[in-house]
Amino acid sequence: MTDPTGPAPALTLAQGDITREHADALVNAANSSLLGGGGVDGAIHRRGGPAVLAACRDLRASRYGRGLPTGQAVATTAGDLDARWVIHTVGPVYGAPGADPSLLASCYRESLRVADELGARTVAFPAISTGAYGWPLDEAARIAVATVRATPTRVDEVRFVLFDDRAHAAFAAQLD
Ligand code: ADP
After folding, report:
1. What ipTM does this complex have?
2. Distance between CA atoms of residues 176 and 170, nearest Å
């Protein structure tokens, strides 16, 4: 068991493509199939290369035959990315039945739990659920920042990597 205590992590912001970031773990806004998709997922698989997809296929075959449930997280190798691990998490689809904010919060909490298990000290998150899954940016940013602040972890730095100006502004407003 890890002991997730210690000083709260530094929360930092970056703008751009998360697959260009260096961190111990990069979080993927995956879909439950774990087999790739658009947005962050597509970029992670493109730049991570075949090792990431092979690891995801293994997880499908071994533990997640029905897919990774929404709100959960699981790690694989980072393949060719400048990281040790990718932590795949499945955000809720905005407006879908049962897709309440607690499920989006769970993505951040579970990803940090997996990061602690791995011993990751720097973790980069995209704005989960704010692309294809349609979550309003301001609310998603509020949930992301509040959840990370409330989650005990041994991670030293949590970096939010925002693709565009709007997302960056939404997260910056929460960190002020
Ligand atoms: P979801 O299906 O969880 O909504 P998406 O990947 O469609 O995930 O989008 C999540 C957020 O990530 C959106 O704000 C989108 O603009 C942003 N995004 C898309 N590609 C990248 C990337 N390569 N790096 C960082 N953020 C990205």
Report:
1. 0.98
2. 10
